Amino acid sequence: MWTNKQASYPPGTSPGTGVGTLEPAPAPAPVTSPVIVPTRNTLESPRTHGSATRAPAWLGPGLKITGQISGTEDLHVECKVEGPISLGDHRLTVGQHAQVSGAISASEVIVFGDVRGNLLASERIEIKKHGSVVGDLTTSRISIEDGAHYKGSIEIARKAQPALDLDTLLARPEKKSL
To answer: What are the DSSP calls for 77-143, one per residue?
Structure first.
């Protein structure tokens, strides 16, 4: 058999005395963890209005709204809505658990859920992968992802261009042919 030739004493004690002084333990090295930067989902992206940045107003999945919704800020809907939604120059996001039955009018409309009604957007309409729209769309830009469901007509409304008056047209120099 083998034997341990070194005596072991508790930390902070000296041999033979039985009593010792406690020495401070060395401080452990600081543990650094990776910095996790939270990313914002497109569902929650804030928009700048004037000089302030605000997150959109939120209607959660536990709500059922019957009637007209109108507002002057961005709105994210995750609930069941029966009635028209009008947001003027702001964005409406229809969440993946939302069911909207009614006309929608906003600057931007992004659909992840189910919409039954006509959509009018002055800037753009996006129908995402699992989104569904049954109704007519009127907008200047449109995006329908693969896997989305859409049934209706699409009208592309061009942005208004400044009209030329008759005097401006007559004042243009004529091209001379050689």
So the answer is: E-SEEES-EE-TTSEEEE-TT-EEES-EEEEEEEESSEEES-EEEEEEEEE-TT-EEES-EEESEEE
C-alpha span between 147 and 156 (Å, rounded): 22
Task: Give pLDDT tens digits for 23-47.
Answer: 555 555 555 444 443 334 444 455 5
What is the span of the domain harbouring residue 111? 53-156
The predicted pLDDT at position 157 comes to: 86
Residue 62 confidence (pLDDT) above 80: yes
In a domain, 83, yes or no: yes
Whether 4 maps to a domain, the answer reads no
